[in-house]
Specification:
disordered N terminus; 31% helix
Length: 196
């Protein structure tokens, strides 16, 4: 009798695993679409990835650090797109999981480009949470963390006690505050800005 029950339950369990795998693949596809939207500075495509729920949330470095709802999140990306050129975002080590109506992706990211006269070279990790809405996966929460300079193999200058180094105006989502040895802002912590 147990063998018969196991034989009946196994196909259902395998079907459930297949659905989870398909959902994880769909989430990986959304990560790729997000990368393409950012590289193309395509705010509309980016908005189609995010949920329209007013409680969606993004944690990032630029003040105030917490952005809720597409109005705030979209404005942050628009401001960034308006100020950056030659943007190139890449991701690797993407891991995606899904169960039921919730899923997540984690990945490492690297971003290059130009922010005015500064060379943008930044990298870090991200966690993104997705929810299935109307049969489609939508991004409901993103948390971007830049890699600290010491972990990125760069020396970190010691800022004055109690002070936070400046960030260039319009620095990208995810860029940490920093300053160069000459006292000029740099988009990469501890690294002098590169000029054209």
């Amino acid at each position: 009798m147990c063998l018969l029950l196991g034989a009946v339950a196994l196909p259902g369990a395998l079907l459930g695993c297949g659905a989870g795998r398909a959902d994880a693949d769909a989430i990986r596809s959304l990560v790729n679409r997000e990368v393409a939207a950012i590289n193309g500075k395509d705010l509309r495509a980016l908005s189609e990835i995010w949920s329209k729920d007013k409680d969606i949330l993004m944690f990032d470095v630029p003040p105030p650090g917490r952005f809720q709802g597409w109005d705030q999140i979209g404005r942050l990306w628009k401001d960034f797109f308006d100020k950056v050129t030659e943007i190139q975002l890449t991701v690797d080590a993407v891991r995606a999981e899904a169960q039921g109506s919730l899923g997540y992706a984690t990945y490492d990211w690297s971003m290059t480009g130009r922010l005015g006269s500064y060379a943008l070279e930044d990298r870090g990790q991200a966690t993104a949470i997705y929810r299935k809405e109307g049969g489609q996966w939508r991004l409901i929460h993103a948390h971007y963390s830049p890699v600290p300079p010491a972990l990125a193999g760069q020396e970190k200058p010691g800022p004055a006690a109690g002070s936070e180094p400046p960030r260039p105006e319009g620095a990208p989502p995810h860029a940490a505050p920093s300053s160069s040895p000459a006292g000029r802002p740099s988009p990469v912590p501890g690294q002098s800005p590169k000029t054209p």
